[in-house]
Amino acid sequence: MYDTGALVAAERGNERMWAMHRRAMARSVRPLVPVMVLAQAWRGGPQHNLSRLLRGCQVLPDTEGLGRLAGKLCGLAGTSDVVDALVVATALELDALVVTSDPQDLNHLSASMNAKLAVHTV
Fold this sequence. Notes:
The chain has 7 helices and 4 strands.
């Protein structure tokens, strides 16, 4: 799963991010992107690199259950970043690795529920 930092890294042409994405594509792994992550990264256009990355991804809709869990995470962790909380909630629900540029905030959120989040930093 990609968080906003991963999408921003792709748009900026970060080679580590693109190499990882190419490896995922070669293994027929379609990375997940929560729709709120897309909203946080998208600034209109043209965003050629981000658009190219998204063609290989599955954009996930939000659900009421994920919204409730994200809100709970914010309350437990004492934070108001609902997008990070939604990433953590989705990753925990799907047992997904999160590709991020900011593992500290995500780990803080998951630790608030005594959960271990798998993260890869770009």
